[in-house]
Fold this sequence. Notes:
By secondary structure, the protein is α+β, with helices and mostly antiparallel strands. It has 2 domains: about 80 residues, no CATH class; about 200 residues, Alpha-D-Glucose-1,6-Bisphosphate, Chain A, domain 4, CATH 3.30.530. About 50% of the residues lie in helices and about 15% in strands. It is built from 11 helices and 7 strands. The protein has a 5-stranded antiparallel sheet, with helices on one face. Strands 2-3 form a two-stranded antiparallel sheet. A hairpin with a 2-residue loop joins strand 2 and strand 3.
Amino acid sequence: MSIRWKLHALAGGCLGAEVAAYLLWRPRMLRWGATAEEAGEPLPGDDHTPHPRVQSTRAVTIDAPPEQVWPWLMQIGIGRAGFYTHDWVERLMFHARYVEGRHSATRIHPELPPLAVGDTVPMGAGVFAPVSEVEPYRHLVAQETFVLRPLPGGKTRLITRYRGMGFASPAAHAIRPDAGPVPRLIRCAVLRIPGLDLALRGLDFFIADPLHHYMETGMLTGIKARAEGKISHAATLTRRPPPWSPWRPRPDAAPRAAAARPRPAAVAAIKTVHTLAWLSIESCVLYVLYAGLRGRTDRRARHRWRHRRRRNARLRGKRVPLPADPAC
């Protein structure tokens, strides 16, 4: 077996293992935190898409009554309070800005009007989600469904469900005509290029679904932390004390070390490094597949081998007939 076929087999095995692992993990991804009853029961808004291509149900228990959770849902949206999730992804994808600047809101903003039926929630990049149902302290339907259920002990069960025809293609169709030039160009390409919608289905299955899971779980945990008072506006405004000299230990070093928590900037940096590492691995696998199909790797190696043979022959002052190609 030649080196090229070995590379093909190795790349195919790695790609097959990744696909198999994703297919095994996908059912758990689509029902993160939700019970089997919650994932199978009908929820408000299900009748808007009777035959969905994708359905996900995720849930979290919040140690706060629904009256403290509902105001956070009433101010969601890009340019408003945000979605309380991984803001760096939204800033990277469509330069998102919020009422508090570069991060989602950490307090209730009375100046933001609450959502009502007929309003639209800005999702970013010129995409808007229409608000179709609002029942105070019960549920909100705005492309996704948010259901609040009171639990004993002053707790709340927050359930979210997405039920639709995917992510990339519906988002492209939902771009408004008054959006920027790049979103309008994407919408025109999706509507006019044949076969692009089918390619977007594969993009949804392998990329958009995991990305939506990452953002939605971050939103659930973000709402939970804010409703429980673990993220306060005063904490974001607190200025760090001046650094101490490295030659003199802090008097409260032990208590601070015991109560130390990872900084948001450090956590974001680690996540960015992990994401870049994953992308580099995926790009290497794709390049190996492409190079194997095109024969670029063997052709470059054959060219270098022939060049070395000719150079050695010139140095010896005589021409040496080239033997048979070892790759053949």
